[in-house]
Amino acid sequence: MTLPTPAPGKTRREIHEARARQRGIVIASLSTLCVVAAVVLLVPLAPGWEAVQKSFFNGEIFLRTFPKLLQAFLLDVAIFAWCAPLIAVWALVIALCRDVRNPALYPLRLFAVLYTDIFRGVPVVLVVYLIGFGVPGLGLPRPWNSPYIWGSLALILTYSAYVAEIYRSGIESIHASQRAAALSLGMSKSDAMRFVILPQALRRVVPANMNMFIALQKDVALLSFIGPVEVLRQAGVFKSLLANFTPYVVAAIIFLCVTIPATRYADYLIAKQNRARS
Amino acid sequence: MTHLVLRNIQKSFGNKTVIDDLDLEVAEGDMVCLIGASGSGKSTLLRCINLLEPIDDGYIELDGLDISDPELDPQPVRQRIGLVFQSFNLFPHMTAEENVMLAPRRIKRLSREQLRPDISALFQRFGLSEHMQHYPDQLSGGQQQRVAIIRALAMQPEIMLFDEITSALDPELVGEVLDVLRQLKAQGMTMVMATHEMGFAREVADKVCFLSGGRILEQGPPEQLFGNPQQARTQAFLSAVL
């Protein structure tokens, strides 16, 4: 038997791995091709395909509605942009209130517990309705009856409950020895939290919060139920106007253009953090 | 002059007694080494002196003040007692210099500029001048531990406690950390140290205490405790580790 002659400059392991990689790529390409071909060939055979194609994937309507929908999406981005920082701050207040140990401040702690329980327990859309219709119903003068204000408040209140819990998990993930080190130097408990624990905890929860904020960007569309003509509502207007569902597909694609890169970035951050910790 | 006095210290976690009716006196400028097997109560004792762990009973006196009074605010007491940990516990998000400056900045309300001359001098004395702007994960274990010692010294404590500060180090890095302690000793710092470095204890300590089951079974000058231990358990421990 003759041994295979090794290629110059490569170990046997490298040769083996290169070969396995090539084989993997070929198999993955073939199986993907089969599935795509099946979808492309089989779906149009469905009896309703032509009707669906006309009402959901109408190229002409796509091009006609896209600019206006993109413009409406800017309103979603704007609502997101003013909600996100307020959530980040308010959630931190809630998270810190939950860890208060001073008996005189017990009401704060009770408030924080009830707050997170209530707002994590009610569907977002319900909070949007209750606050978005309820508060302006008090007969407030302009501009205080604006659905932008109260709809945004509903999102801020709900998302802060989740983000507060993320902050808390971050705070608890910092090892007790860090606090001990700060206290042993004679620092106060609040200084230990502010300068030693929080900076580390906040960094650690960035990826988890990224995911929350991606969800927030999507949930901004819920405000369409109480008035603001953002992308979902604009798509609804077009749907009624043109008797066609294509605008909804356009809206979905616009959302994906933002959320997919953001999700990938969050995954990248998580992977980076896991590498750093191992 | 007696600096630190411990009387009848009792400490238990749940129903496990960790320190059992322990007495100890530390004279000013003395280096006291606590030796004994893992779990004999050395670390807990140091954490109790720094008030990180409240004692159940007994009292601790620092320079005539009963610091074990449960009603006492521990913060000013801890400023007078430095504690260095086995696992360094540097703040990983701060440079070495920021680690050292944080407590004096917050507690003594000194600015970075006011602190810099003294702190640079400390870094220089312990051979770490080039590492002031480095983060802990850029430093070796021995360098991290020396930064941790500087961090405790920056508060100008009257007494320093060391909790097995060389146990997490690679053997070749132990020497540089022990050298720091020799310097502190020469300078007259009062120190209590839990350690497994018997050679070092023998060389530098004024008093060595052998702990077992949360009690000091035997104590004395190193030549006596290492040379002629009286208790059977001390003899057994020493012959196992030496």
Automatic annotation (TrEMBL), chain A:
Domain of life of the organism encoding this protein = Bacteria
Q: Which CDD domains does the record match to this protein? A: TM_PBP2 (cd06261)
Q: Which InterPro entries match?
A: AA_ABC_transptr_permease_3TM, ArtM/GltK/GlnP/TcyL/YhdX-like, MetI-like, MetI-like_sf
Q: Where does this chain mainly localize?
A: membrane
SUPFAM superfamilies with a match to the protein in the record:
MetI-like
**Residue ranges annotated for the ABC transmembrane type-1 domain, each copy included:** 69-266
What does the record say about its membrane topology? Multi-pass membrane protein
- Cellular compartments annotated: Cell inner membrane; Cell membrane
Report the transmembrane regions from the record.
25-49, 69-97, 118-136, 148-167, 241-262
Question: What UniProt keywords are attached to this protein's entry?
Answer: Amino-acid transport, Cell membrane, Membrane, Transmembrane, Transmembrane helix, Transport
Q: Say what the protein does.
A: Part of the binding-protein-dependent transport system for glutamine; probably responsible for the translocation of the substrate across the membrane.
Q: Of which family is this protein a member?
A: Belongs to the binding-protein-dependent transport system permease family. HisMQ subfamily.
Q: What is this protein called?
A: Amino acid ABC transporter permease
Q: Lineage from the top down? A: Bacteria, Pseudomonadati, Pseudomonadota, Alphaproteobacteria, Rhodobacterales
TrEMBL record, chain B:
Localisation: Cell membrane
Record family assignment = Belongs to the ABC transporter superfamily.
| Single GO molecular function | ATP binding
Stored Gene3D superfamilies: P-loop containing nucleotide triphosphate hydrolases
- Name the keywords, alphabetized: Amino-acid transport, ATP-binding, Cell membrane, Membrane, Nucleotide-binding, Transport
* Domain ABC transporter per the UniProt entry, residue ranges: 4-238
Q: How does it sit in the membrane?
A: Peripheral membrane protein
What species is this protein from?
Ruegeria spongiae
List the protein's name.
Amino acid ABC transporter ATP-binding protein
Which PANTHER family does the entry link to? AMINO ACID IMPORT ATP-BINDING PROTEIN, GLUTAMATE_ASPARTATE IMPORT ATP-BINDING PROTEIN GLTL
